[in-house]
Amino acid sequence: MEEMKCLMIFTDGSKMDGRVGCTFVVFYNKTELDYRKFRLNDSSTVFMAEVIAIQQAVQYVKANDLGQVNIISDSRSALMALSAVEEARDIINNIKEDIKEYKGKIALTWIRAHMGNFGNERADQLAEEATLISDETISFVPSRNQIRNEGNKIIKDLWQNRWNDSKNARWNKNLTDKVNVDRLYGDFYINQILTAHGVFREHQARFFKKMSLCSCGQETGSVLHVIKECEIWTSYRKNWPSGWQLMSLKDSINNAVIRISLRELLHELLIKELDLL
């Protein structure tokens, strides 16, 4: 960096409090000659702010015919996109084409951020100031990924509201209060606890008109009775951590030791009930 005698243009992008801005600042021998600040629409990403800063710097060089210029950025991702052989995004390809058509020479250089370099620190300051500009100076439609992500967020919010307001599945809501789109790996036995369906006699009585009394003869064969109270399954609780009686069902299922024994308990319960058929 110290050996460079040509013009150096430092670029940077910033996002603060949901507002996005970018800048480029022109130096020659550590003397600041010029700068530009741009405010982007709030849906923009920091990556796009970095790319826009480089784009505006390239256009500035071309408009002023500055000869040999080194454009310096701390955004490795933006520079990697510009160096890729194949790129689908129009803005990246347009920058590459502008650099190719320029009569002088434009070099793109990466610099590590926050290392005290005079130009990088100045660009960082100006990019933060750019987020405070009242009106957008550059705006563009959201990318396909942004539109998809925003659509997924809206769907998830609507789903959560329906889940909160629903009068159904009250048992399951106690165990799963937040909706999510994580992939589930089914567990035949644990799923019966989560849904209060399957082998439990309370469920069998409600849906198939079978006897609801637990085989111990003390209480209805509900999930909580079978897991925490029924004397038939006392041996499965011997190795449970202390204080398990005070644990919620949700915490019990998430406990690795209890979860393993619950699977074994449900497996034996299922065999017992099938033998009665």
Automatic annotation (TrEMBL):
Residue span(s) of domain RNase H type-1? 3-132
This entry's Enzyme Commission designation comes to 3.1.26.4
The reactions it catalyses are: Endonucleolytic cleavage to 5'-phosphomonoester
| Enzyme class at the top of the EC tree | hydrolase
The transmembrane segments are none
Q: Name one GO molecular function term.
A: metal ion binding
Q: Which Gene3D superfamilies does its entry note?
A: Ribonuclease H-like superfamily/Ribonuclease H (3.30.420.10)
Q: Give the domain of life.
A: Eukaryota
InterPro entries, from UniProt? RNase_H, RNaseH-like_sf, RNaseH_domain, RNaseH_sf
- Keywords attached to this entry: Endonuclease, Hydrolase, Metal-binding, Nuclease
Which GO terms fall under biological process for this protein?
Answer: DNA replication, removal of RNA primer
Family the UniProt entry places it in: Belongs to the RNase H family.
Output this protein's name. ribonuclease H
Name its species. Araneus ventricosus (Orbweaver spider)
